Amino acid sequence: MKYGNISKAIFISRPNRFIANVRMDSGEIEAVHVKNTGRCRELLKEGSEVYLSRSDSPGRSTRYDLIAAEKPGSGLFNIDSQAPNAAVKEWLEKQAYDLVRPEYRYGDSRIDFYMERGSDRYLLEVKGCTLEKNGVGYFPDAPTERGTKHLRELTASLSDGIIAGIAFVIQAECFSEVLANEETDPAFAQALREAENAGVDVFFCICRVKPDELFITEVRKKI
């Protein structure tokens, strides 16, 4: 996926989950919308270089969205929580599916994608990963009851003859695999183990990451 109207800035502070204060190249201090409600503490540090996309939507209280940040020694991270689904949708539409339907209701959840190919039916849940430690990605960076619930639904779908998977979209170029962050969310880690053991596929989506782009270049199935 591509962004338009990109600007570079310096991160100053994050007074709440939705707003950050940045210093523009002009020296002006600007309040911008953070497109990720996760913690992102290892990325959004005072003095970090960040990238903004200007929005022309009327009625907004902020002019820019904060979409990416540089992590010293690791490179650029896209932190837009909406970007992984957009990138996966672009990728799926290039594959040989007869049907790709976003936001599919299954059980008590909305699963990110439902696909059909011939008589086969698929469910795919997408999770973006921005937490990196020593060249390995970890998910989640904060407890996610919703994520655990989705894994339970994917596991249950197998008994209906559905081929189920979870795709971790890696929003940086410095790592290529994702592990469950058991220390932060043991329930999610347990649900992921149970899902894998039951037959839910795990995919790692390798991406090209630029200030104005998040594009899937390869999808690897975990063995």
The CATH topology assignment of the largest domain is Trna Endonuclease, Chain: A, domain 1
Q: What is the string of SSEs from the N terminus onward? A: EEEEEEHEEEEEHEEHEE
Mean of all residue-level pLDDT scores: 97
Strands ordered across the widest β-sheet: 7-8-9-12-14-15
In percent, how helical is the residue content?
10-25%
What is the level 1 CATH name of the largest domain?
Alpha Beta
Main β sheet profile: 6 strands, mixed
Tell me the layout of helices and strands:
Elements: E1 6-13, E2 19-24, E3 29-34, E4 49-54, E5 64-71, E6 75-78, H1 83-92, E7 99-106, E8 109-117, E9 120-129, E10 131-133, E11 136-139, H2 145-157, E12 163-170, E13 178-180, H3 186-198, E14 201-210, E15 213-221
Parallel strand pairs: 3-5, 9-12, 11-13, 12-14
Antiparallel strand pairs: 1-2, 1-4, 2-3, 4-5, 5-6, 7-8, 8-9, 10-11, 14-15
Structure description:
The protein folds into two domains: 6-78, Beta Barrel (OB fold (Dihydrolipoamide Acetyltransferase, E2P)), CATH 2.40.50.580; 83-221, Trna Endonuclease, Chain: A, domain 1 (3-Layer(aba) Sandwich), CATH 3.40.1350. The protein is 16% helix and 46% strand. The chain contains three helices and 15 strands. A six-stranded mixed beta sheet has the order 7-8-9-12-14-15. Strands 1-2-3-5-4 form a five-stranded mixed barrel. Helix 2 packs parallel to helix 3 (186-198). It starts with 5 loop residues before the first strand and ends with a strand.
